[in-house]
Design brief:
Length: about 80
């Protein structure tokens, strides 16, 4: 069963559209959606992979280096039987 995570992204002022474009340009099969949102975060990306560690690597190696990202919070989805 794939692991799922919600990556909550806070962007620098005026950089939100650039960050969304950069995330979409990554064209990662693990990234299921990228949405602009209101509230304390500016963007939410949904990521799925067969391994929780791979999700962590994707966030730190692919998402964090994008210019305009101030910080992220990754929330792993837990399925209750």
């Amino acid at each position: 069963m794939p692991a799922k995570a919600f990556v909550l992204i806070e962007t620098e002022v005026g950089r939100t559209k650039d960050v969304v474009a950069a995330l979409n340009n990554l064209k990662l099969k693990e990234m299921k959606s990228v949405d602009l949102v209101t509230g304390p975060y500016d963007v939410i990306a949904v990521v799925e992979h067969n391994d929780f560690n791979a999700i962590g690597n994707l966030v730190t190696e692919k998402i964090h280096p994008i210019p305009g990202i101030k910080r992220t919070v990754t929330c792993l989805s837990i399925k209750v039987p």
